[in-house]
Specification:
Blueprint lengths: L14 H15 L5 H10 L1 H10 L9 H13 L2 H10 L2 E4 L21 E4 L4 H5 L2 E5 L6 H16 L3 E4 L5 H11 L4 E5 L12 H10 L1 E4 L9 H14 L2 E4 L7 H11 L3 E4 L7 H10 L4 E2 L3 H8 L21 H9 L6 E2 H8 L3 H13 L3 E4 L2 E4 L1 H8 L6
Parallel strand pairs: 3-4, 3-7, 4-5, 5-6, 7-8, 8-9
Antiparallel strand pairs: 1-2, 2-6, 10-12, 11-12
Helix pairs in contact: 1-3, 1-4, 1-5, 2-3, 3-4, 7-8, 7-13, 10-11, 14-15, 14-16, 15-16
Length: about 400
């Protein structure tokens, strides 16, 4: 029997259909992240919770009479078949816990786990979530923040990682665009129905994400975002991914909620540092003073969240010609002053070696073009000044 067309209630369908309709019904009635509602479903099952809400007579434990009345009022107008029909028309599917496409890591949220997810886009949510990283940050980001989010996301996408963010202005949008621009995979987790992109200014971007990736949300079709829904959405981003990177965040940034949720869930938490004088980096720096790890590019992110052996390259400054000299020869070279000459005896004393050793090394340095002999004195050549001092003259 088709659960979208049957006249019976969700509790009178085929058990599988009834279970699906019950969860769809509850996404319309219970707010995302409601641990009380999640506990009801865990302890009593979705069908029993639906029945009690429809009857509305006796409240389930853990809520006041006023709140129970509000839930029952929502239940009275909830129509799961209509929601499924609207979703199907918009190319949206409902993914329930325990099904083949459900990402098992969301179960780490306990009773705050989503009752189900509405998904728009072709790829498997479960498979994509297995190798995903969240890139989040300030909406009113700086050019630096947008640049870092874009390059980080592009680098992650090029390495085969899915970039997850919230579809918002600022860092979120830059991260999505970076992944898409690199021809990679990205997923947007929204705080509203996935059939109505928000913010409106990102309609084109979110539609493009749906075509090339995934748009995910807990709320049924047509539902609108609220401040609390944005905050609660962030726990899904944190739980869905292997780690969260915060690019720019002020002290009260919602992206810090994502990072702290990731920490509670045992996920990796990373931060991209900014200027110490920037208020938009203050929240990131606070994270870095705690358990978050400083990262500067995609390779460093992958080293943390990836598999064994996925190491970032060793970071070193430029190799100077003098680095190739034997250490005692470098000591003799360093003994020569920036201006003027010194005798071999004085060079030996400064380099803490013998006179014969100093003379031998000075002739070696002359052959390499680093020093010149002027009578009994030795001085640095212009080549040595550039190599040793970096062209900046005396230090």
């Amino acid at each position: 029997m088709d659960p979208e067309t049957s006249p019976a209630g969700p509790d009178r369908e085929h058990p599988e259909d009834a279970g699906l309709l019950g969860l769809v019904f509850l996404t319309r009635v219970i707010e995302p992240g409601d641990e009380t509602g999640g506990r009801w479903v865990r302890e009593r099952g979705a069908a029993e919770v639906v029945r009690r809400l429809r009857e509305g007579a006796r409240a389930l434990p853990g809520v006041s009479a006023k709140r129970w009345a509000g839930l029952c009022a929502r239940a009275a107008v909830a129509d799961p078949r209509r929601d499924l029909a609207v979703a199907r028309a918009a190319g949206v599917r409902f993914v329930a816990p325990g099904t083949a496409e459900w990402p098992g890591q969301l179960d780490d949220l306990g009773d705050a786990r989503p009752l189900g997810l509405w998904v728009r886009g072709g790829p498997s949510l479960r498979m994509w979530a297995l190798r995903s990283v969240a890139v989040v940050g300030a909406r009113a980001c700086t050019e630096y923040g947008a640049h870092m989010a874009t390059t980080l996301a592009a680098g992650l996408a090029e390495r085969g990682w899915v970039v997850v963010s919230g579809g918002a202005y600022g860092v979120d949008g830059a991260a999505h665009r970076g992944a898409l621009g690199a021809g990679g995979a990205t997923a947007a987790v929204l705080a509203c129905g996935v059939d109505r992109p928000y913010p409106p200014g990102h309609t084109g971007l979110i539609n493009r994400i749906a075509e090339q990736g995934l748009v995910v949300g807990e709320l049924p079709p047509g539902d609108h975002p609220t401040p609390s829904r944005f905050i609660l959405r962030n726990r899904v981003i944190a739980a869905l991914t292997r780690g969260t990177v915060v690019v720019e965040a002020a002290y009260r940034s919602g992206s810090l909620v994502t990072a702290r949720a990731a920490q509670r869930l045992g996920r990796h938490t990373m931060g991209v540092p900014g200027p110490a004088t920037s208020a938009l980096s203050a929240g990131v720096h606070e994270l870095l003073r705690g358990d978050a790890v400083l990262v500067g590019d995609a390779a460093e992110v992958v080293e943390l969240v990836g598999d064994m052996g996925e190491l970032s390259p060793e970071r070193r400054g430029p190799v100077l010609p003098t680095d190739l000299l034997e250490s005692r020869t470098r000591h003799v070279l360093a003994a020569l002053p920036a201006r003027g000459t010194v005798t071999a005896t004085e060079a030996a004393r400064r380099a803490q070696t013998t006179g014969d050793d100093a003379i031998a090394r000075l002739y070696e340095l002359r052959a390499l073009g680093y020093v010149e002999r002027h009578g009994d004195g030795w001085k640095l050549t212009r080549q040595a000044m550039i190599s040793v001092r970096g062209g900046r003259g005396p230090c």
